[in-house]
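User: Hi! I have a protein structure encoded as tokens and I'd like to know what sequence might fold into it. I'm fairly new to this, so please keep things simple.
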């Protein structure tokens, strides 16, 4: 898992009828295309199905030495032994999550368009912070908009990695890397594409 904070941060999309095996196939393709971190995100599935998918994904990610992050759900992350958790503003606070997950866990937090949230997150022990949305997003069309200048400001004031999210494609992602993003997060840009491996590869190429 060396240098996982550089490149594509792939977030699974919410497909209700996708089996754990099919989800693993998709994630494997993304990893083969260059994804450095996988985040499992599914807010609408029943608990049992989410557990099954997450456990299957963890095995898949372990096979490829890529960390698996669970979106929002600290209890699920602890139950399956995931590598970390990603927290939003309405989720468990970072220090409580750290106490439950341990010092080795990767804990990231959404900071939207706020440098102040990011500074506070770093002080509380976050491993990375995520800013965005930077472009129009089909996943979160009403999300707070952030500008590339925020990444430049964050690069000057923070020492932890910066993740950019929101409507990012291989065509528009370069400007965010140039502004200071260590990782580009994508959902539909990877998992809604006909060839997931190639889609991931196109993001990965931006970092070379």
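Assistant: Happy to help. Inverse folding works backwards from shape to sequence: for each of the 208 positions I chose a residue that suits the local structure. Here it is:
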């Amino acid at each position: 898992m060396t240098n996982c904070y550089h490149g594509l941060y792939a977030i699974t999309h919410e497909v209700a009828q996708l089996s754990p095996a099919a989800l693993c196939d998709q994630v494997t393709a993304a990893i083969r295309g260059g994804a450095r971190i996988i985040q499992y995100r599914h807010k609408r599935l029943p608990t049992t199905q989410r557990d099954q998918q997450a456990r299957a994904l963890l095995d898949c990610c372990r096979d490829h030495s890529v960390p698996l992050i669970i979106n929002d759900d600290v209890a699920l992350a602890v139950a399956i032994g995931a590598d970390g958790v990603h927290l939003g503003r309405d989720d468990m606070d970072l220090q409580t999550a750290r106490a439950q997950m341990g010092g080795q866990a990767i804990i990231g937090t959404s900071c939207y368009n706020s440098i102040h949230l990011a500074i506070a997150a770093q002080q509380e022990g976050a491993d990375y912070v995520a800013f965005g949305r930077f472009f129009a997003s089909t996943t979160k069309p009403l999300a707070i908009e952030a500008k590339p200048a925020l990444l430049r400001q964050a690069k000057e004031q923070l020492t932890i990695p910066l993740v950019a999210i929101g409507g990012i494609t291989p065509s528009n992602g370069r400007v965010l890397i140039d502004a200071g993003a260590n990782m580009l997060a994508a959902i539909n840009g990877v998992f809604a594409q006909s060839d997931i491996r190639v889609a991931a590869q196109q993001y990965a190429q931006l970092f070379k």
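A useful reference point when you look it over: Residues 7-205 form a domain with the TIM Barrel fold (CATH 3.20.20.70). Feel free to ask if any position seems puzzling.
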